[in-house]
Amino acid sequence: MVTLKNNWLTVEINAFGAEMHSVVDRKTGYEFMWQADEAYWGRHAPVLFPIVGRLKKDEYKYNGETYSMTQHGFARDSLFAVEEVTANSAVFSLKDSEETLQIYPFKFELYIQYLLHKNKITITYEVVNPSMDAVMYYSIGGHPAFNVSEEGDTDEFDQISFRLEPSREYMTIPLSEDGLLERAQRKFEFAEELNVSHETFKKDALVYAIDVQTEMVLKDRRNQVEVRLKPNQMDYVGVWSPHPKKAGFICLEPWAGVADTTDTSGNYAEKLGIHELAPNEKMMHDYTIQFTKKAQL
Question: In the predicted model, what is the mean pLDDT of the chain?
Answer without folding.
Answer: 95
